[in-house]
Input
Amino acid sequence: MYFVEKNLTRFYNLGYTYFLNPNELKQVTYKLKKDDYNIYLPYPDSEKNIIYHGNTPEVLLYEIICKTEIRHQDILGTMYSLNISSDLFGDVLVINNHYYVYILPILQNYFETNFTMIRNSHITLKEIPLSTLEDYTREYEDIELIVSSTRIDTVLSSILHVGRSMIEDYIKRKDVLLNYEILKDTSYKLKEGDTFSIRKVGKFQFVKILKNTKSNHNIIEIKKYI
Output
């Protein structure tokens, strides 16, 4: 697989990979011996991390200052519109109306020069110490749902309050990711720890089945990323 080989080449030549999501990280570390690498986490619960050996890789943290309220998806959408590859930046965090993003130094000049607006709002970028968020713990909204099945299309239907035919439209548009890959199998039954996201809606993690109802439905717990 080209993706794995590319990151292994970076690992051996540079001493580190770029940012990897959990699925990508698993694919790359599968090819490495356990004692041959470390994993750099910008903060304890970070989602996108870096595999390295030797010195800890350099990472930059920026606060995005905006006079109007912006959303996580607004920040991501702007970065992608600037053709910034997802492996050049780490987690985007929204904490009490403050906005942060981790990037690699290789991106710094382009980022500072071109990342000047989000939607119709002018922004200011401020590089801040990594220690600012080193103890940050991600927050989630706990949600309980009653569903007839743990099939992902059934759970999505409950979250979005739409019928399965509408869910099929989301999937055809490639608006749903399961464990960081485009969802293809609508009959997939969610397992504990599975992560899924819906474009322009949010990101979720399936926690567990809490119990069954008398009508043989499932009461499930999911977490929504805040």
